[in-house]
Amino acid sequence: MGSDASPAARRRSRVSPDRAAELFALVLDQLAEVGYDALSVEAVAARARMSKATIYRQWGGKPELIVAAVRSLGTRNVDTIDTGSLLGDLKSYIARFHEIAAFDRGTNRALTHAVHRDPRLMAAVRQTVVEPGVAALNTMLSRAVARGEVAADCKALPYVNHMLMGALGGESLLGEDLDADFLNGYIDHVIAPALGLRAGG
């Protein structure tokens, strides 16, 4: 069993949203408590009083289950962000990703460690969290260029994604808890000047 379960088999699951939410909470608790290597689908299933076969059918395996648990906290539909200005879009974008990064420091550290130990988990995180986030950001930037907010030849455009990821990643490395004022200031005073935008404009 594991991630080889077919999509058709997964669709046969009868896991309700409420039960899935309970399961995801247990997964995140276990991840923070024992780490990725020691976490097992069997142990999670036993604590959730759920068949491990049901978990495999629904999610496919441990990496996919952990990613589903993280996604239950959500990037909160970053692809729908459209405030009418690039600064507004970027502030909404970084705030939504910060919600994921900040939900639980222990779990976040465990997940960061785990993705470098399991290529399947790394692939799952990239596919379900990173790639949609990058695509949404590229849409925002393209929209800003089309509106004339940012010059099409702006040298900073290729670096915006790394700048945003650096701010969020630095929070954990520096042991600091960033708030909305800090993140908005980072957009206004670091990213906006690089893109030729007026802070708060």
Question: How would you characterize this protein structure?
Answer:
- It is a single chain.
- By secondary structure, the chain is mainly α.
- 71% of the residues lie in helices and 0% in strands.
- The protein has helices spanning 7-11, 17-38, 41-48, 52-59, 62-73, 86-102, 105-115, 119-147, 160-174, 180-195.
- Helix 2 packs across helix 5, helix 5 (62-73) packs parallel to helix 8 (119-147) and helix 6 runs antiparallel to helix 8.
Which SSEs are present, and which pair or pack?
Blueprint lengths: L6 H5 L5 H22 L2 H8 L3 H8 L2 H12 L12 H17 L2 H11 L3 H29 L12 H15 L5 H16 L6
Q: What's the helix-strand series?
A: HHHHHHHHHH
- Cα shape: elongated
Q: Spans with pLDDT under 50 lasting ≥5 residues?
A: 1-12
Write the CATH homologous superfamily of the largest domain. Tetracycline Repressor, domain 2
End-to-end CA span: 54 Å
What is the β-strand count?
A: 0
Strand content: under 5%
CATH topology of the largest domain: Tetracycline Repressor, domain 2
What's the structural domain tally? 2
> Could you tell me the radius of gyration in angstroms?
19 Å
Mean pLDDT: 84
